[in-house]
Prior knowledge:
- By secondary structure, the chain is of the alpha+beta class.
- The protein has one domain: Class II aldolase/adducin N-terminal domain (L-fuculose-1-phosphate Aldolase), CATH 3.40.225.
- It is built from seven helices and seven strands, in the order αβββαβααβαββαα.
- It has helices spanning 6-22, 79-88, 101-108, 119-125, 139-149, 169-192, 200-212, and strands at residues 32-36, 41-44, 60-63, 94-98, 130-131, 154-157, 161-166.
- The protein has a seven-stranded mixed β-sheet with strand order 3-2-1-4-7-6-5, with helices on both faces.
- A hairpin with a 4-residue loop joins β1 (32-36) and β2 (41-44).
- α3 packs across α6 and α4 crosses α7 (200-212).
- It starts with 5 loop residues before the first helix and ends in a 14-residue tail after the last helix.
- The relative contact order is 0.15.
- The model has no long low-confidence stretch (mean pLDDT 93).
Amino acid sequence: MAFENESNIRQEICRFGTMLHEHNFVAATDGNISVRLDQNLVLCTPTSVCKGMMRPEDLVLVDMQGKPQDGNRNPSSELGMHLLYYSLRPEIRAVVHAHPPTATGFAAAGLALEEPLVAEVVITFGKIPLARYGMPGSTELGEALKPLMMEHDAILMAQHGVVTCGHTLLKAYLNMECVEHYAKIVMVARQLGSPQALSPENVRRLMEAREHYEGNKPRSRKDWEQ
Ligand SMILES: [Zn+2]
């Protein structure tokens, strides 16, 4: 193995794959997960495998151009958007993509989750924007995501699903969970008929708090970020 803790990371990716599946964030072979190991290597989930049934040896080591470095399987066809996040944001260590039904429902309806309805969601994400449609795995989708990735740790993709990132795999996974939970809350508020957005002044104060929120910051910087 190329890295001292690579076998732990492989197990962690499988564990979070099982969680994605058990929480119904993915069905069948949907979704993908990756972790950046160093400046030039990324460990990612293979194509056409149920994320709830992966074995550590199924994962594929690729370089930053997406070229497989070992393993018998092919990387996810959606690896490109993971690599795009890593190339734009050196502090990012993990990316998760899934199709959680409620948040994906918003994406399918052409609706972003940008209205400030819940205080802690503003602190965690600011806004959750919607990227315009691009064929999965295409450069067209990359172009749609690129301007949003610099500012956002969670993005809805029109007629497709959700992509989240984090400075740890746990954080990237939890961001996915928060997006889906928030989508459910927004749907209920809309069903009740009168969602009450936070005032601009309250949003400003929350955005200020967001600047200092520890949960959004990397805990340690790695060599390749310096
Ligand atoms: Zn997808």
